[in-house]
Amino acid sequence: MLAYAIRRVLISIPLFLGILLLSFLMLKLAPGEPTVIQQDLQVRQSEAQRETLRKLYGLDRPIYQQFGIWLWRAVRLDFGRSYMPDGRLVMDKIQERIPITLGLNVLELCITLAVAVPLGILSATRPYSLFDKLMTLFVFVGFATPDFWFALLLMILFGVQLGWLPMSGLRSLNFEYLPFWSQVWDILSHLILPVLVASVGGLAFLSRLMRGSLLEVVRQDYMRTARAKGLAERVVIYKHGVRNAVIPVVTLLGLMVPGLLGGSVIIETVFGIPGMGQLFVQSAYSRDEPVIMALVVIGASLSLLGNILADLFYSVVDPRIRVSGGGAG
Amino acid sequence: MAGSLPPGGPLQPVLSRRRFLSLLGLLPLAACSRSEPAAEPTAAEGGPAYGDTLVEASIGDISGLIPNITSDSASQEVGGLIYSNLVRTDKDLRLEGEVAERWDISPDQLTLTFHLRRGVKWQDGEEVTAKDVDFTYRYMIDPRTPTAYAESFRQIRRAEIVDPYTYRVTYEKPYAPGLLSWGIWILPSHILEPAWKAGVDLRTTAQNRHPIGSGPYLFRQWDPGEKVVLEAYPNYWEGRPYLNRVVYRIIPDQSTIFLELKAKNIDMAGLTPTQYRRQTDYPAFRKAFHKYRYLANAFTYLGFNLRDPRFQDKRFRQAMAHAINKQEIIEGVLLGLGQEAVGPYKPGTWWYKADVKTYPFDPQRARALLTELGWRETGSDGILVKDGKPLAFTIMTNQGNQVRQQTAEIIQRRLRAIGVDVKIQVVDWAAFINTFIRKRQFEAIILGWGLGLDPDQYDIWASTQTGPDQLNHISYKNPEVDALLEAGRRTFDERQRKAIYGQFQDIMAEEQPVVFLYVPDALPVVSARVRGIEPAAAGITYNFIRWYVPANLQRYTR
Questions:
Q1: What is the pLDDT confidence band of residue B409, given thresholds at 50, 70 and 90?
Q2: Which residues of chain A neighbour B450 with C-beta distances below 8 Å?
Q3: Which of A288, A315, B448, B517 has the lowest CB atom count within 10 Å?
Q4: Cα-Cα-Cα-Cα dihedral sign, residues A65, A67, A69, A71
Q5: CA–CA distance, B513 with B515 (Å, rounded to integer)
Q6: Of A44, A171, A287, which is closest to B471 when you measure between CB atoms?
């Protein structure tokens, strides 16, 4: 088991470096240099000034050198300073956004799980009933609805027409002056719409997965055995059925780990939430290479970590995999 | 819609407030018309009162708080309230002193002497003196400074601090736009100079995060991606601003901004033509907001790559001008909220010449001009042909600008009608500039220019400005125009300049180096509780510090 884990981690290292190298190359090959983007056409910039900027950022060196320099600093967790005129440390820029995106996504994930799993179970235990059919409809609608459109509809209803909920941002303007519990409510009320919109897609997907998985499990021999033993239906379903049916959901959770920090560009943009998704888009538009590369590092490490964790979880939850996995590695 | 942060291109009409007034890319507006009558003050209403907060939306975060090294409008707008300038323009777009009380121009027109006001204070209590102006100048010309505004300061041969309240600069040659370039934000030398001398990148100093300025508002707070908060500076030399706080909320989505506006969570924003005409025309909105409308400081054009022999004859460009129905573009795309452009200037400025040659919509005339040039219809597809080659080209424009894309489509249809096969290509801003514009790899483009408060347009039309990073993208070359643009820079006399730029506009109209399309309207709305707004040639924000909310209407108590 431990040997397997170590081997998985070691295999990931060249993969990780490969991702970084490819991202770096793509960034360099894309048209538009930071020095051009910084200055839009309204103003003038002489050739000499441009050269000064390129030197300042080290853009005049060959690409392999640039990558080497960047990698050597990144290994020591020094991601440099942003190219934007704020000139801030990349780590600072990312750090202030991590809690926001992480909070939003964890909340969304909890709600999705808390609702999707029971919904899936209810659908699976009453297949083709009216409830199941309504759920199917809901799932298709949920899948097909574009996030930004759904978001705007909710904003018009709850923000403009009814005026019950704030539409954008994280805090009200008078936040500092509110008592503690009002501050908590203030943030929560700002999160209701984004979390709702963000959950719909995942909710539809996960509840379907749960339903399909449980229907699969219900047909298994051990379920028949359990019923034959005379166990109550409730115990059969929840003790023997759900436990087995939840395995694919757990695997999927591992794959969701990188998404927790990635942030949703659309949701963060529409709701004006200053999270990681927004940072990534803005950096991409302004070719803020230090920030983009730091985000790539985070994304790549989390994806690999997620994969490893999913593999390991899988072997923990399912003894069959553990046995064969242990035998092989 | 969602997820798109349009890089915008140079010329999104934005609300600009006392922005830096250098060359291109400046501020205010003329030919002002107010579309809705001002609400009559009710009897119960008090006069000017201190207090309340004005909430504005910004589509992008600010990029720093030393505006001299930023190039985005949000940073420069915020910077404009925190810092002050040596000179500025008044409501009629005339130059006036700000920190400089007055200035002298030497008889040879080479030397400018600025006399500074006494008692103008930095927000930490120090006095603003010629030392600060001098530091700003030296910082601007430092090659390490990542600024785009250095060029006009590089024309200076000598700069000297005569005494703490007198600053003198001498130019290489008489340089009329130089005066306006002193609309630059003055930086505090007592805070920044030691770091600068030590070789520190000023972007990394505290001033870029928590600035000390000398303008009407104090910096309070910047929550990246969320908001920027400013507070009235009680000791501002012109008097304390009435509005106590100004908050910029950063909302990266245009639709969300509009919904927040409708819900009255935002007090001031710019509208699109559709929003102005169709989505804000209901009683509740009219009651809550006042809409304003005036010509923006910009024009949009269809430009041709003049290195391409097909486009070099002026008759070709004249034919294009005749073939395009500008009025139709204004009606269809801007919903009537704009004006036909006849040249590179905005109507209403003192240098604008209205009686130039115009090109009314006339497809027959266009067709005749093309025939003169040897283009003939040979096949059955109706496309004109010369030397066996069909008349076909691609119009490029940047992604994220709906108005320009629609303009391209209308032009495409009109040109097809006279036998020109036009394709449209919409390209991401970065690629557009870097791959196509810089390398001159385009046939035709639709773009816009932001206009300055000075008629100088040397950078976009002079034949010396056709290098890769220079702004004469279309490679226009005309010795006569070069001479006029040069002469315009060398004289300060308004009447002489008017004559020079009048001649220049005649040539522009005759030659049509680009087809001038339209000048769009700026369409700001401001909450109806705000009083003291007096639309003028300069727009509405020139007297921002005199805007107020009567005591009984104030909404934010802290």
A1: very high
A2: 42
A3: A315
A4: negative
A5: 7
A6: A44
